[in-house]
């Protein structure tokens, strides 16, 4: 784009909302022509509260323009606008496609086969393991993994794709000149170093605003061919993403969990509403176009309980057998195993250090997958 085109797009997106901007573009044909529309046309297109902001350029626009040109001079940084020939068709077909996308990384990934993986910011240990394992297997099968760079399930999904030497797309709710949460700065850097993509519809300098994160979820849902919910409470952003995926005509998948776990209730609600229950990545692939590669064909299959199907696996420890896969207390384990508290505590500590179980709040323990 030329500097004048960039200036016009920034002024338009910073002045009015997406719906109003689309009405203006339909009238004028280009962002530059929008600002040459007669007053009567503007009056028809915009409600009174938006007219003043539209007619008067934002005070911060010159600074944003300068910042944008500096940012675009960096390798891998680009802008994508509605109407660009490489605008992703899946996103274009949604109810509210973004007018402007800020991209850092290979923009062609936006149109690649992809699956969204979303879930709790505070998953159980097994939930984090599931997100990583499913993302790894799906990335090996040729899908880019789309998520939101949040803590918990999002981060595990991105890491799973990267560990498989696959691609992942992180759709964020701030400007791309910052990483939120700060704890994921290394993950964002790794993502870029391995040829994956950061995406935002928000201009540089956009701070952390709670309202922006549910809004960005429509991009996560719109880019992907399907949406997998790993763990989620009934009232959560993940269920918003799942609803948006349904509205966009996408497949929705959910991993079941313990009936006693609050983190599983959102997934169970989705399953009752028609989402597909999945226990392995293969269940997801069965519902989507086959893109399996030799890598996934030879990779061990991991199910949602974390059990490998490979032959010759060692029998689980007696304590692991007694635990099952639900959170369990020390007293319950003592009753199941007949062991003393001292012996059982020592063994639980050993298993925890080996990464085979996780210690949860309330003095509960839960088995987790290895590898």
TrEMBL record:
Residues 309-363 form the DprA winged helix domain. It comes from Pelomonas baiyunensis. Residues 79-288 form the Smf/DprA SLOG domain. InterPro entries: DprA, DprA_WH, DrpA_SLOG, WH-like_DNA-bd_sf. Belongs to the DprA/Smf family. This is DNA-processing protein DprA. Pfam families: DNA_processg_A, WHD_DprA. SUPFAM superfamilies: MCP/YpsA-like (SSF102405). It comes from the Bacteria.
């Amino acid at each position: 784009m030329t500097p004048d085109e960039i200036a016009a797009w920034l002024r338009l997106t910073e002045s009015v909302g997406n719906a109003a901007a689309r009405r203006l573009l339909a009238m004028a044909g280009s962002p530059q022509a929008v600002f040459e529309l007669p007053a009567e046309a503007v009056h028809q297109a915009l409600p009174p509260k938006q007219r003043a902001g539209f007619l008067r350029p934002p005070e911060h626009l010159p600074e944003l323009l300068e910042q944008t040109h500096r940012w675009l001079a960096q390798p891998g940084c680009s802008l994508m606008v509605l109407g660009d020939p490489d605008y992703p068709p899946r996103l274009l077909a949604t109810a509210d496609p973004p007018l402007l996308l800020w991209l850092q990384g290979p923009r062609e990934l936006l149109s690649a086969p992809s699956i969204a993986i979303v879930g709790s910011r505070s998953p159980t240990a097994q939930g984090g393991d599931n997100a990583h394992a499913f993302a790894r297997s799906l990335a090996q099968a040729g899908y880019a993994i789309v998520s939101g760079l949040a803590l918990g399930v999002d981060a595990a999904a991105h890491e799973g794709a990267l560990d498989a030497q696959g691609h992942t797309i992180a759709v964020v709710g701030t400007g791309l000149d910052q990483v939120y949460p700060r704890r994921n700065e290394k993950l964002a850097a790794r993502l870029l170093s391995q040829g994956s993509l950061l995406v935002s519809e928000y201009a540089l300098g956009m701070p952390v605003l709670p309202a922006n994160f549910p809004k960005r979820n429509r991009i996560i849902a719109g880019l992907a061919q399907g949406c997998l919910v790993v763990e989620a409470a009934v009232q959560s952003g993940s269920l918003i993403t799942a609803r948006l995926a349904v509205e966009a005509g996408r497949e929705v998948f959910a991993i079941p969990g313990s009936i006693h776990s609050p983190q599983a209730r959102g997934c169970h609600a989705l399953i009752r509403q028609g989402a597909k229950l999945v226990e392995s990545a293969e269940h997801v692939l069965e519902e989507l176009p086959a893109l399996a590669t030799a890598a996934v064909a030879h990779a061990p299959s991991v199910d949602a309980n974390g059990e490998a199907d490979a032959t010759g696996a060692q029998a689980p420890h007696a304590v692991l057998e007694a635990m099952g896969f639900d959170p369990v207390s020390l007293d319950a384990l003592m009753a199941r195993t007949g062991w003393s508290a001292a012996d059982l505590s020592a063994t639980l500590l050993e298993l925890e250090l080996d990464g085979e179980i996780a210690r949860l709040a309330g003095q509960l323990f839960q088995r987790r997958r290895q590898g």
